[in-house]
Amino acid sequence: MSADGRPRLGIGMVGHSFMGAAHSQAWRTAPRFFDLPLETEMTAVAGRTAESAQVAADRLGWLGSEASWKDLVARDDVDLVDICTPGDTHAEIAIAALEAGKHVLCEKPLANSVAEATQMADAADAAAERGVLAMVGFTYRRVPAIQLARRLVEEGRIGTVRHVRAQYLQDWLTDEESPLTWRLDKARAGSGALGDIGAHVIDLAQFVTGEQITGVSGMLETFVAERPLAESSAGLSAVAGSGRGPVTVDDAAAFLARMSGGGIAVFEATRFAAGRKNAIRLEINGSRGSVAFDFEDMNVLHLYDADEDAETAGFRRIVVTEPGHPYLAHWWPAGHGLGYEHAFTHQVVDLVGAVATGVPPAPSFRDGLAVQKVLAAVEESAADGSTWRGV
Amino acid sequence: MSADGRPRLGIGMVGHSFMGAAHSQAWRTAPRFFDLPLETEMTAVAGRTAESAQVAADRLGWLGSEASWKDLVARDDVDLVDICTPGDTHAEIAIAALEAGKHVLCEKPLANSVAEATQMADAADAAAERGVLAMVGFTYRRVPAIQLARRLVEEGRIGTVRHVRAQYLQDWLTDEESPLTWRLDKARAGSGALGDIGAHVIDLAQFVTGEQITGVSGMLETFVAERPLAESSAGLSAVAGSGRGPVTVDDAAAFLARMSGGGIAVFEATRFAAGRKNAIRLEINGSRGSVAFDFEDMNVLHLYDADEDAETAGFRRIVVTEPGHPYLAHWWPAGHGLGYEHAFTHQVVDLVGAVATGVPPAPSFRDGLAVQKVLAAVEESAADGSTWRGV
Amino acid sequence: MSADGRPRLGIGMVGHSFMGAAHSQAWRTAPRFFDLPLETEMTAVAGRTAESAQVAADRLGWLGSEASWKDLVARDDVDLVDICTPGDTHAEIAIAALEAGKHVLCEKPLANSVAEATQMADAADAAAERGVLAMVGFTYRRVPAIQLARRLVEEGRIGTVRHVRAQYLQDWLTDEESPLTWRLDKARAGSGALGDIGAHVIDLAQFVTGEQITGVSGMLETFVAERPLAESSAGLSAVAGSGRGPVTVDDAAAFLARMSGGGIAVFEATRFAAGRKNAIRLEINGSRGSVAFDFEDMNVLHLYDADEDAETAGFRRIVVTEPGHPYLAHWWPAGHGLGYEHAFTHQVVDLVGAVATGVPPAPSFRDGLAVQKVLAAVEESAADGSTWRGV
Amino acid sequence: MSADGRPRLGIGMVGHSFMGAAHSQAWRTAPRFFDLPLETEMTAVAGRTAESAQVAADRLGWLGSEASWKDLVARDDVDLVDICTPGDTHAEIAIAALEAGKHVLCEKPLANSVAEATQMADAADAAAERGVLAMVGFTYRRVPAIQLARRLVEEGRIGTVRHVRAQYLQDWLTDEESPLTWRLDKARAGSGALGDIGAHVIDLAQFVTGEQITGVSGMLETFVAERPLAESSAGLSAVAGSGRGPVTVDDAAAFLARMSGGGIAVFEATRFAAGRKNAIRLEINGSRGSVAFDFEDMNVLHLYDADEDAETAGFRRIVVTEPGHPYLAHWWPAGHGLGYEHAFTHQVVDLVGAVATGVPPAPSFRDGLAVQKVLAAVEESAADGSTWRGV
Q1: How many contacts (CB atoms, under 8 Å) link B and D?
Q2: Of B154, B255, C207, D314, which is least surrounded by CB within 10 A?
Q3: ipTM here
Q4: Which residues of chain A make contact with D59, given a CB cutoff of 8 A?
Q5: pLDDT tens, residue by residue, B330-380
Q6: Residue-range definition of the domain harbouring residue A194
Q7: Do B240 and B131 fall within a single domain?
Q8: Do the Cβ atoms of D57 and D65 come closer than 8 Å?
């Protein structure tokens, strides 16, 4: 219990690279702008070595550090474990944490295989019965424009969903001499563009429509088979070393899909879309209107209302910074936009609220498993002449 | 031979609805802005009845009229037959005209089946040996921004093609009470969104890349199975009558594809994209850059040059109205944009140039057949669980 | 009287350069797409020499030609004189034509001085009493998106006008070696950017708001004092010759203004806005909403409705191609945009309608005079330390 | 001296409303993402009462609190005073702090009059001789896209500046029943839109061009003379109470200006631009190119290079998130945009760097005075029939 009477929630974070920095900023910032029902404490961060973990703790604002995730999970003062490591480690850490009675926030993709993801979802279900909660970090759900899109679709503003058009376009592999990082290694990353970024748009499409993908026809492609080995593998900004190695994941993925509500969908994920830096695009056309979003202009949602007079109907460019917009009452005046990391702060806010109330947060591990099943179906279809695969 | 010494070219047009109006404007306008090597004469238009044809002739500026296309083809003073009727009539008219020694301009899609299209392409090849030319009307090729895109791709400005992203989005069927027109009748139209508008983006993708589609995985959908019968079927603006009938074509189509140069492609065509009126979108990502186009802003081409410094690289919004841009030296000063119908005028200019020189024009009937084969492969794949079909 | 019973209207055009080409296309096209109440005949065009006039007539589709405007005005078969010459000739030709009983369409600016413009407006008033009509060619009024903006403002959709923000930005003089054309010669052109292009946005602002400019504070600037003499002065595309001469007009103009309804306005006109080709921008903010337009995307109007819920309010991007939009029922299906020259066709349609009904068309010569007075007030203010000048 | 050997810098902040929240986030965040040469400590915050100050301290992350700014300035452990109060208090606090040997960061506008601003600039100059530094908070300078614009202009990429087009458009007073806050009270705020938001675009224009405004012609307007009294005056989100009071500041301002390099400029600031939420727009046209920025899309800069081939020239949409862009190496991967508050973090980084090196930071109080002089000249000109006023 804290000085102001709110219960305390001790956080332990595993991993402190790109995602660790983003999560730390969220844990630091959320209590400054939102009235959290629990007093969050940034208790400790775990890394690969005691030294790197302590450097990270100092840098990122954690009270302590641990040389291994197991030590972190074992701490009594850690109530929630925040997993920011590559996908091949998620299952082991998350299941151990849940079994130890710790709430878990796990970065996406939930795991590198459906089998692992299933174990995790089962572990989460079991934990839930003991009041222990689990959430997977599909953070883009918490961009205010995406939340607004969901709200409008839920309210029926666009009617029955006919089309989903979802793309995640990056270009950081366009250069054929860009080095091999762990993200290009199937053993570590599970898959390439499909799982790393395609997973995001799969989740967004299901979240905003409130529907499930029921089947897919997929295509994968690796444009550049071999790349320079990376000297160091620090996130996206690795430096090329000597020697070359094979790219074992997809550079790009595309698939057709059907939605549970009768609509059809087209998905694309690539790191080869020259000029597109982080273009997460989602357009949904319904029987009464449409919504459209592009993360390159993240504070904006476009809404088309087909019920308006034809003479004045048009896509509205909604600047999603009004006090009535999701999360925005806690930030700045209208027109003062948010950035990438704010979605992580919103994730913390929602998660802490869930822990305080005991209501299971979304997206659940089962939602993460659902995405994993879509990824697997796409891979199977792609390997089998794009033949349709149910999900 | 005309007064100014240029040889005369007598034009006969079949059909005088939407496409007939557009073609007529082109035949009227081309000689006013371009130095045509032949003196074109708008000799006669053929319709279903003598009366309707004469009314159309007066309205659209043709010197005479004929009650049937056969009479038109038989006229000695008609050197070129311009076919603006629905797809189910193309083969018969075009083959007859070619055999009669008339050059032919045939609206797209070339035919309603691969079999018909093959006969037409064969007829065109045979005619070519006699110096008789044939062209299919994929008019959007002649939007200046598309021509510029082709020129840039051909010059290697974007390098090897990695991605093609092509969409043709309309919304005029979103309203479920919008009536049945001939475009929703498989017998007349051959297919729905796929053949009517998808054909355009297939042609554009192949034209701008200079590559062929080698295989596809397709999906078709008819969202609204039954509609009010149309009282009259005047183009897109039909009025609902009494009774209802079945929609026998696709409302929307989507397919994955591979390009002959190693790139991958995603295509979509629909009449259900609420708020998108005529959004022909083409984005091509290459190893050195990208081009992007949207017909809703038709005088603009976006170009990304990946060879530029990262700090100042960005998609350039090229306003395609400079004298050095394709066709533009013949129009207005920079910044004074063109409209939809100008592409038809450019089509006439290029066709007349081809007739004058005897160099076969593009797109040829064989190009039209290539598109037809893609359409057929998409339909077959869609009917067979999206299984991959070579083209 | 024509064959179909409609009265005949013989048109005589003076001048056949850039504006002559645009007007000719309009006279040729209007009867093909609109049901004109009169049968227009392109009777004759007048130029500086018999030869140049005849070449123009053949090229542009006029039945005959005259070596001087006086001969044209004298012809019995000319009922309407269309003046497409530089501004220093307008007054003489227009007044003579009106006195000869000919309806007049006169290109903008109405004249090169308030004195001349006043004479012309008086002549037009006198002619009106004899049933002879006069119109000045502020053609951009007839871009459909501008007409729609006017309609919405008139209906009260944006409430009381608070702000007008009007810019006409070009860049064709950015290059300091671009040659002297007649447009840079005060004796011929009257003024520079101010009168040539600023006049357009002054008229648009007054037209769309339905208000008058009541006073101004102005600033003029000539950035490049001397330029190469032009070898020939063919419109905007002159070629540099030898020698240099002084630029005697403004390169750029800017002014503050007050509107009769209580709003304030900012105007800018320049030929030095590098990268802006023909950016006619008009934004009007009212107490209940806003409209915004940019000619570089001429088929679009942006509308903001402040009465909407704050959460879903946003500028609507209206694609102004619906059948219910001004003039559009006569053109193509939704989404098939128009180009620059279509506004000239609409001008012809409206003018012929006015002649048929006898209702004086807008903009009248008095509207043209009103613009001229604003231009003069800006020049006087600029010459007097930007001190406020009533209009 | 801190544990890691860096010297300590104790920060004291005065005021804890909107600006106080933004500054606090910056002080908290800067050391997490940047390697600051000093160890900053958020020592204390001062408010109007001991209680409100302590609540703010707890909320915003300050170690302590003071009931008055005088107590804060008197503390030995405060090395830098960060002033976040309304403009009428700036001079007294800043001068006292400087005289007490504290570095000062003062929110804009520097003061409510030229007289006060002059005293402050003099105090800053005197302090500088003692190694005490002062900076004024024109934060928008530190938006990366603005820094990039400055860099490009400085490098000569757009040549000689011809035009500056600067607007700051908001709409929060469009509603006539929006209540009176201190920002509408001349005694507190000094001026209205002109000083509050116009000051920002004046500073941006001078910063990005590297030039000074040498003279102006101004116009001010108050559209709504009387408003409901505010029940509470909490920043922008005040609630209306009973009774009405007069608006004593301008609702909107516009002025013409000349730049020291020979270019001309048009400025506009308003809170009545319905639909524009925080549209800070800056376009600069030069002899070799242009840059354009709109804060509603704050991670983007548009660049036009007139030296490029006319056929491929166009405004480049630069997504300013590359590692080579100003400040960006410290944030996220390309395409992951920043938000409003990041500019405050950059301000802290630059200020701390200046304190560590002793190099006076920009914008200086003298820069703030320069802006104040422009504001005064605009007011004088507006009061005198817009007559030109030198600055």
Answers
A1: 52
A2: B154
A3: 0.95
A4: 32
A5: 999 999 999 999 999 999 999 999 999 999 999 999 999 999 999 999 999
A6: 143-383
A7: no
A8: yes
